[in-house]
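anyone else get weird line breaks when pasting these?? whatever heres mine. first is seq + tokens for prot A
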Amino acid sequence: MSLETTSGALLLGAAVTALVVANSPWRDHYRALSRTVVGPAALHLNLSVSAWAADGLLAIFFFVVGVELKQEIVAGSLRRVGEAAVPVLAAVGGMLVPAVLFVVLVVALGDPSALRGWAIPTATDIAFALAVLAIFGRGLPVALRTFLLTLAVVDDLLAIIVIAVFYTGSLDWGALALAGAAIAVFGVAARAARPRWWLLLPIAVLAWGFVHASGVHATIAGVLLGLCVAAVPVHGERTARTQRFEHAVRPVSSGFALPVFAFFAAGVTLVDGDGIGAVFAQPVLLAIVLALVGGKLVGVLGVTALVTRFTRLRLPDAIGVRDLLPIGFLTGIGFTVALLIAELSFADSLHTDGARIGVLTGTLLAAILAAATLRWDARKARDRDMNRDGVVDRDTRPIRDPAEEESDPGFGGR
């Protein structure tokens, strides 16, 4: 379940299954299950099953994003400003250009009411993008994976900020203060000499509950909890706890949380009402597809070209300009976070369905183009100095799935 290839396959399988079931004779049962309300009403947690998937299960995925982000900032590729600058700026360009393109298209196509969805095509799905790279990028240097991971982590960080700022309603400051206290307690417990999952888990659930009650989207709790984990070895341990927590939680995120969310988020019924024609006629659909496939590519390549041309910044070791073409398409794989923002953006089903189909279509096209360009890139001979910095490339190891090389040290183990 920790393999990137497995995670991508499960996500794709869940999305396809959702589309099939939502357009089958069992679609009424699918909708009924999605709308079934469970949870204690006294705690304001009487949510539908689909809401639990988006608000609850997706917080597990965002916890993994949080610990990854903490690891990269403290001890990884984001620690060295010079090496991280190009992918960080590329991530910013990869968010701004799709957002602007989306706004221009929905206005030009006569649907200004869809402007609230401007953030949908800005997000990159880390799990899906890395899965495509792991499958089709064999033979390319591992530096390409690091570049994509850095870009995608920054992309997700910016997407989290967007969700917190633009998709948060009225705030309950009391619940927010209690959430902060619970997160602080989690941080202390996570840094104890021997952290215990049976103590950390209820504290995390409590923090999630307070964040949910505060009005901030509950998935933000996962990120904040992940950022509390130590990213350097403590108490004489050999590995950082961010790595150990990620190894422990990632199988749950990849094998259960993400597929279940995808199953409920991707199920668009096209055979009822006005049918498939009404959904595909939505300007929001075309805007999302073009923004994901074209806007992401232009944003990533354009900003990278500008900063490497007019500043002293250079691409990382072993990466050439031609490698950025598949990277640009990989960033167009939106899926998880894009589907979440689509649900948060619109209140009417027509816009929501159009946005969902747009995300799925754009992601599929971007994945196909990324796979094709990765194989094209892998077949071409590589120079000894791909980034043209005057220094022979040192780390030319080929891409492999990290989970194939790492053993799980265990949750709370030494």
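and prot B, same format (seq, then tokens)
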Amino acid sequence: MKMDLNHDDEWRDLMPSWIKESIPELTKEQSHKLLAETTQSQWDSLPWEFLSWLDAIRDRGWLWWGYRTFGSEAIIVVNIGMIPERIDAFKQLLRSSGIDIIGENYPGLP
């Protein structure tokens, strides 16, 4: 059977439980309540909602390029192909898997 990765249900079924637990799916009511209780200037600090995160992963604006490890640390390289890139969704994936992000560097951007 061919999977259609344009449908949220297919992604829901593919994602491991640790991602779904770390990035929960909220109802419209829960999302509206969260936005109503948070000042607009603080919206960028709100936790990811699963379907919003999924949209950002599907239309991310970056491609995996590679990585290099140094003991317990790693440098991850992505190729940013469009602005705005949706790198925050990737960072959430890293944090959800237990990775601490200790720095970021964007040498090719002005």
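btw re prot B: The CA atoms of residues 70 and 76 lie 11 Å apart. DSSP finds five helices and two strands in the chain.
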